[in-house]
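Q: Given only this backbone (71 positions), what sequence would you predict?
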């Protein structure tokens, strides 16, 4: 997503979906169960208590921003 200049419509939709899924799966696999308890990702201590959840949220938000910029 970063620094690349291309038209999303030039890519095969299924391949785009595959690549996004692979990236998200990699991030999701890093999340530990304890990070999902008691909203540990929220608040100022979120990145310390739930670094993988906050990383996933940040990546998701970046992906949403990228997609919305293309619409």
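A: Predicted residues:
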């Amino acid at each position: 997503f970063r620094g690349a200049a291309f038209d999303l419509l030039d890519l095969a939709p299924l391949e785009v979906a595959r690549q996004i899924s692979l990236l998200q799966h990699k991030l999701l696999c890093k999340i530990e169960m304890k990070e999902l308890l008691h909203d540990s990702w929220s608040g100022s201590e979120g990145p310390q208590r739930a670094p993988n959840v906050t990383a996933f949220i940040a990546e998701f938000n970046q992906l949403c921003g990228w997609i919305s910029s293309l619409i």
